[in-house]
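Let us practice reading a record.
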Amino acid sequence: MDNIEQLFVVEKSSHTYEGDIEFLQDSVMNLDVTTQHYSQKGGHQSEHHIHKRPEFQELSQWIEECSKDLSSRLGIGEKLTVSDMWANINTGLNSWNARHIHDGIISGVLWVSAPEGSGHIVFDNPVPLEYWTQNLMDTHSTKINNANTSQVTVKPSTKTLLLWPSYLHHMVEPNKKNVQRISISFNLG
């Protein structure tokens, strides 16, 4: 009998926020805007330490709880804590976030508002599969899946939290409609 095993694994987890999303949206809209330009292309970000503000304490604790299973699967024995957190407000048609990575061990996003037409988040496979996948598609009848693709796209959804290893390159596609996408991003370490 043949034995097939995975050599490398990249996992993400998703969770549904059951707290008061309107309170979070109001809290985000009351934050000061940073003058630094990160990956944001259209819209703006808040300063990067909102997890220290009282209105984001409960959210930070919930994120830390949600991260336990993924941390364990990554072989991390101790509890991770939020090291930085910021809000992103992508306003209007074609507002997006350029490809980037985060500091930390685990990173994530909570969509506070993701109306239809909001840009999707796109994760790059850390294994450079582009040419191999193209060759596979050109020469064989191939169904694309997580084992042979160079990117995975996730549609944003209000109240959805995603967690992933911080080394994953990712970007947010441009908004396809004139909408305001609001998210809270963070790193745990």
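A brief commentary: Helices lie at 21-29, 57-73, 130-139.
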